[in-house]
Amino acid sequence: MNSTAAIKTRLTLLSFFQFFVWGAWLTTIGTYCTEGKGWSFPQFGAIFSTLALSSILMPSIIGIIADKWLRAERLYGILHLTYGSIMLLIPNIAFLQELFPSLAATQEYEILYWIVFAGMMAYMPSISLSNSVSYRILKMNQLNVQTDFPKIRVWGTIGFIAAMWLTNLSGSKASANQFYIAGVGAILLGIYAFSLPACHPQGKTNEKKSLAQQLGLDAFKLFGEYRMALFFIFSILLGAALQLSNMYGDAYLSSFPKGTLVEKYSTIIYSISQVSETIFILTIPFFLKRFGIKNVMLFALIAWVLRYGFFAYGSTDFGVFLIVMSCIVYGMAFDFFLISGSMFVEANTDSNIRSSAQGLFIMMTNGIGAYIGTVASSQIIDNYFMISATETDWHGAWLLFAAYSLVVAILFLLLFKEKRTA
Question: Domains (ranges, CATH) in the chain?
Answer without folding.
Answer: 1-200 (1.20.1250.20), 220-417 (1.20.1250.20)
